[in-house]
Amino acid sequence: MKKIRKAVIPAAGMGTRVLPATKSMPKEMFPIVDKPAIQYIVEEAVNSGIEEILIITNRGKGIIEDHFDYSPELEQALLKSGKTDFYNIVHAIPQIANITFVRQRETKGLGHAVHCAKNFVGDEPFAVMFGDDVIVGEDPAIGQLIRAYEKYGKGVLGVNAVPESEIHKYGSLKVDKIEDNIYNCTDMVEKPKTKEEVLSLFSILGRCVLPPEIFDILETVEPGVGGEIQLTDAMKVLARSVGMTAVDFTGVRYDMGNKLGILKAQIEVGVANQEFGEEFKQYLKDFVKTL
After folding, report:
1. Between the CA of residue 64 and those of 26, 61, 216, 245, what are the distances in Å?
2. Distance between CA atoms of residues 134 and 153, nearest Å
3. Which of 123, 167, 222, 247 is the most buried (most CB within 10 A)?
């Protein structure tokens, strides 16, 4: 069995749910305290043993590439002013991982975006980490999925249960428990419209591990919801034919394409910050008293 060495991060979406902020700044670059969202995702990949990362972008997202590149002028200015701590932080960013970029020239859906990674992936299994889903926890979420792939040898879905009132916004999975937080997935429905279409309250949330066969499926799958090539439709073929593994992962997920998700990320990560977390908590306690 081949090792999972590569990760693909689709980051080509327009972020319409958080306009007007995304008119000039990609949602993947929204800061959570002092780091952009996508840096949390890259660090999660690296902490899970990923060696190579491909970020799929679109026009107007060159700022993402700039963030993971060196900034000689800024670095020299920091050194000149004696701000070596900040210099070390900035200088280390391009060294986090071996990152390459490819542009999705047409916005044809998540499935189309992942297909743009075909040459990068080759014949290896690979991780997919959605660019607007930040997952914070002691055990990296994609690492949990990689371990499940190594154990069961099938494509893996990162899942959590969502509220019944929200399941129509997500995909619903047909699952049977294998052990602990591990399930076998044999079917899925994207955004079920009726209660009868709901297979379970488990939904794919931001992470998966896929075999290279997914590319052949993506080339034949018909456009789905919104007239786009849906990754879910391709994964459904895998689930129905050979089955997939679903991992109810641990960690807190923040949807950076959602205004409330952005606010939650700022507050919860801020409270845990070692530098000023206690001071921030006291501020929140005092503020809540005024409500």
Report:
1. 8, 6, 29, 32
2. 26
3. 247
pLDDT digits (tens, 9 = 90+) for 10-64: 988 777 888 888 888 889 999 999 999 999 999 999 999 999 999 999 887 889 9
271/124 Cα distance (integer angstroms): 39
Phi-psi region of 155 (alpha: psi -120 to 50; beta: other; left: phi over 0): beta
In angstroms, rounded to a whole number, what is the distance separating the alpha carbons of residues 267 and 56?
28
Supply 88's token pair: 């070390």
Orientation of helix 72-80 relative to helix 84-92, angle to 10°:
160
Question: How far apart are the C-alpha atoms of 55 and 11, rounded to whole Å?
Answer: 7
How far is it, in rounded angstroms, from Cα 228 to Cα 107?
8
24 Ramachandran zone, left/alpha/beta (phi>0; psi -120 to 50)? alpha
pTM over 0.85: yes
